[in-house]
């Protein structure tokens, strides 16, 4: 059963072309991360999306997926965006798996864009179209 975690708008970072939300743990109301739509292009109906769960103790519990699904629902169903996209470091395999499960596809990469721990890494660009998101089998499960 779909049970949304609380997220609240972060008014301190709100702008015309961005919508940011604090992710809170249900039981404690403690902030555990942030999710946002940035670079919102109303005319072309697209935006960049981000998520960051800072506390590693919250990783692997499905909280990031749930929060990101809420953000995507908002982007596609409330804002009627056509596309959302993101950037992710190539070494962030956990995030890449999440994005792929949600339907994101790799659209490009910036080769050797960042230097971390003694080696160069790529930055991947991934995108998701509204039709691909709402047509996914997991969508009908969440809506029932």
Automatic annotation (TrEMBL):
It comes from the Bacteria. The keyword Transcription regulation does not apply. GO terms for molecular function: acyltransferase activity, transferring groups other than amino-acyl groups. Coiled coil: none annotated. InterPro entries: Acyl_CoA_acyltransferase (IPR016181), GNAT_dom (IPR000182). Signal peptide: none annotated. This is Protein N-acetyltransferase, RimJ/RimL family. It comes from Kroppenstedtia eburnea.
């Amino acid at each position: 059963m779909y049970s949304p975690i609380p997220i609240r708008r972060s008014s301190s970072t709100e702008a015309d072309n961005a919508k940011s939300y604090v992710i809170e743990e249900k039981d404690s109301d403690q902030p555990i991360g942030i999710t946002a739509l940035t670079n919102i292009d109303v005319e072309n109906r697209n935006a960049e999306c981000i998520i960051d769960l800072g506390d590693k103790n919250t990783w692997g519990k499905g909280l990031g997926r749930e929060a990101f699904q809420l953000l995507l629902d908002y982007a596609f169903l409330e804002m009627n965006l056509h596309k959302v996209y993101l950037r992710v470091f190539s070494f962030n395999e956990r995030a890449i798996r999440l994005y792929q499960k949600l339907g994101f596809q790799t659209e490009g990469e910036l080769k050797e864009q960042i230097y971390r721990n003694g080696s160069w890494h790529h930055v991947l660009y991934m995108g998701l179209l509204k039709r691909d998101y709402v047509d996914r089998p997991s969508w009908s499960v969440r809506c029932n």
